[in-house]
Every structure is written in C-alpha cells, then in structure tokens.
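User: Here's a structure from my thesis project, written as structure tokens. My advisor, Dr. K., wants to see whether a designed sequence matches the one we expressed. Can you design one independently, without my sequence as a hint?
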C-alpha cells in the first residue's frame, strides 16, 4: 500500500527477469539455507499433497499482519486435513517472508510459483505488495486470494478484472464511505482534516473515497495534509491541521504512524477524535499510542465483541492454538483459506483455471467475518464494523451493511 504505481511496474519487470532464472537454479539463499520461511510440513509436495503458498510480512513494520494471517492459515489447513484434505489430498502451507516490501513480495511469489509449484497463493496482506504479486499470478495462471488488501486497483488491470486475483475483504471505496457516514450521522461532524500517506495506495484511496462521500453529505474538508511512512515526526503537519480547527481528523494509515500521530496530536493540545481504517488494527497500535487514541474510531472487518456463535467459536479455537485474541487479519486469513478450500473442492480438477472458475462462482460463503459474495470484479461484497477506542482498547460500536 505504500508504493507508487511506477515502483510496482519496476518490481514486476524485475520479477519477470527473476522468473527466468528460477526455472534453471535455486536462489543462493535457498542453497545456503538462510531463507526466511516457515511451513507446516515438508517443503516438497508429492502427488498426494496440495501445496499452498503464503506471501506475507512476518518481519518488518507490518509483521503483525503477516503473523496473524499465517496463524490463521495454519489453523485452517490443520482443520481441513482432519476432514481428509481436498479431494482426498492433504494440504501443505509454505510461507515466505516478504518483509513488507513489494519488490520482495514479487520475488517470493515467483519462487513459490516457479520453484515450489504451489497450487494457490494466499496473501499478501497489503495493497502495495498485492499489486506487485497480482501480475505474476495472472501470467502463471495461479489463483491468488488476498485476505486484506483493500485498494480497488488490486483486482483490476486497467479497466479489466484480473482473471486470477481475488480478495475476501471489502474495498476502500466502501470503507471510506462507511467512515464518512459514521462521521456525519453518528459523530455529527461538520469539518474534517485529512492526514494521508502520499506513498500508499491504501491511504490515498481511503482518503479520496472518504472525501467524496463526506462532502456529498454536506461535510467540509478543511485541510488535506500529506506525509510519508517511516517519518517519526508529524508535528509540522499536525500544527497546520490545528490551525484549521477541524471537528475530527481522518488518518487512513497503518498502526505505527497512526499511534505516533495520535500521541503527537495530544502533545500539541489537540483533542479532536481521529478516524481511520482497517490498517489501524494491531495490538501494537495500543502499545505505542498509550491511550492517546481514546475517543477515536476506525472501520474494520470484524470485532471480537461480536456475540455471534461463528465469531466466538473461532476466537475460542484461535486462543487455544495461539494464546491470543485474533485480530481482523487472522479472521480474514481464516476466511480466505476456507473460501479457497471450498472452491478447490468444487473444482473439476486442481488446475489454476478450474479453481479460478469456482472462485468466481462463490456466492453466500459464510465466513467468520460475514457472508461473502464474490462480484464480477473479484471483490468481496460484505459488511463492515466501526470500532471505538476506550481506555486504550478497541470496542465494537456499529455494523454497516454494504
């Protein structure tokens, strides 16, 4: 989500070169045994196994996303194997760490497809990395399901839908609309300032969709200030925003920057609520914010406060396996894996084209995060929730239907 289209193009070009080399020899990293990978079973699939690849960030600034997703994928694989796998074949999962970098995501996806011969790619978690992997999946006719990349561009190649790329999360135009409506109707906000990460497709997309809906509902954007991820000091931007006297501040960014922005805003005496999207969802948000985000709100895919049996059953299983409450990335990962399994079971065979066809036919798939319908653009039509922050902890506020 943090990289420009130009960089994605460059990444894709580099990955194309890499693919040719991968067919002839293993990487030096693989030879030396220094690869940053984890897997549930052996690395080499047999004729009686189905190998799935996870391209995810298990290190770096987005590591909580990848680790939560990986836990959920492993749990789903374990459960499916207890049901005799898919078409009588056991499943295996191989995870490669993309370090939160689009260029690394392209390389790891290429390796999983050309060397390891995976049947399907799960991930990546963010839009920037998913944009880097999507053309690789299409070229090799290997289905890719991102559980949490919300940029509308991920499943689109210009004005065409990418044939092999799918998602199980809602997209940014819906998510931005959710928070705009919540701001106007629930918080009764009239004036909003925006802090956007100009290097992030995710942040820019959310900011644009929020702005369009908020202004259409009669609200006013009094300031639109930019930053780039990795910056530790946001006081100059916040000072500029403070001078506009907004009722609230919309910060569509990831948890690391959001927590710092929240703390620095309070240090400047700014008491306005902050609002954002699912990129806020991480335990690290609260560790770093230290209460500075109390009274703020963000859109998300699920809430552990949801009393529905399917949600509470998953939370119980996840806690038993990992001694932690699942975040949205775990829930979305679990749903993505099980949606893939259902499509694979229905498919006439386990080829990429056959699985792709059944992914396209997915309607009314009942997941933990809600009922998923895959539309003609390979996006998931589903509900969203709004989470409030109280006493430095998330609390369910509302559900918004599509």
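Assistant: Designed independently from the structure alone:
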């Amino acid at each position: 989500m943090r990289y420009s289209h130009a960089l994605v193009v460059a990444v894709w070009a580099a990955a194309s070169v890499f693919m040719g080399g991968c067919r002839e020899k293993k990487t030096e990293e693989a030879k030396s045994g220094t690869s940053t990978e984890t897997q549930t079973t052996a690395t080499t699939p047999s004729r009686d196994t189905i190998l799935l690849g996870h391209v995810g960030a298990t290190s770096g600034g987005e590591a909580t996303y990848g680790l939560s997703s990986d836990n959920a994928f492993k749990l789903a694989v374990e459960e499916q194997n207890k049901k005799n796998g898919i078409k009588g074949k056991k499943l295996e999962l191989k995870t490669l760490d993309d370090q939160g970098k689009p260029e690394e995501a392209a390389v790891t996806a290429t390796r999983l497809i050309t060397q390891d011969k995976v049947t399907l790619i799960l991930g990546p978690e963010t839009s920037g990395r998913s944009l880097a992997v999507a053309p690789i999946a299409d070229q090799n006719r290997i289905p890719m399901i991102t559980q949490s990349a919300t940029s509308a561009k991920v499943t689109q190649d210009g004005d065409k839908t990418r044939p092999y790329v799918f998602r199980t999360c809602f997209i940014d135009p819906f998510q931005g609309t959710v928070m705009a409506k919540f701001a106007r109707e629930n918080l009764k906000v009239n004036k909003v300032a925006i802090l956007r990460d100009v290097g992030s497709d995710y942040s820019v997309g959310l900011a644009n969709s929020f702005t369009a809906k908020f202004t259409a509902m009669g609200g006013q954007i009094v300031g639109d200030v930019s930053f780039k991820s990795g910056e530790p000091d946001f006081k100059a931007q916040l000072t500029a925003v403070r001078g506009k006297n907004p009722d609230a501040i919309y910060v569509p960014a990831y948890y690391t920057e959001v927590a710092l922005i929240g703390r620095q805003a309070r240090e400047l005496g700014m008491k306005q609520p902050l609002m954002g999207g699912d990129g806020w969802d991480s335990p690290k948000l609260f560790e770093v914010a230290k209460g500075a985000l109390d009274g703020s709100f963000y859109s998300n895919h699920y809430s552990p406060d949801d009393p529905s049996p399917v949600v509470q059953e998953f939370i119980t299983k996840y806690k038993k396996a990992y001694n932690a409450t699942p975040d949205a990335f775990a829930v979305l990962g679990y749903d993505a894996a099980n949606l893939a399994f259902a499509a694979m079971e229905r498919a006439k065979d386990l080829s990429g084209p056959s699985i792709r066809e059944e992914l396209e036919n997915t309607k009314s798939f009942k997941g933990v995060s809600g009922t998923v319908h895959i539309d003609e653009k390979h996006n998931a039509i589903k509900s969203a929730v709004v989470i409030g922050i109280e006493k430095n902890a998330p609390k369910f506020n509302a559900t918004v239907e599509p």
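When you compare it with your expressed construct, this may help: DSSP finds 13 helices and 18 strands in the chain.
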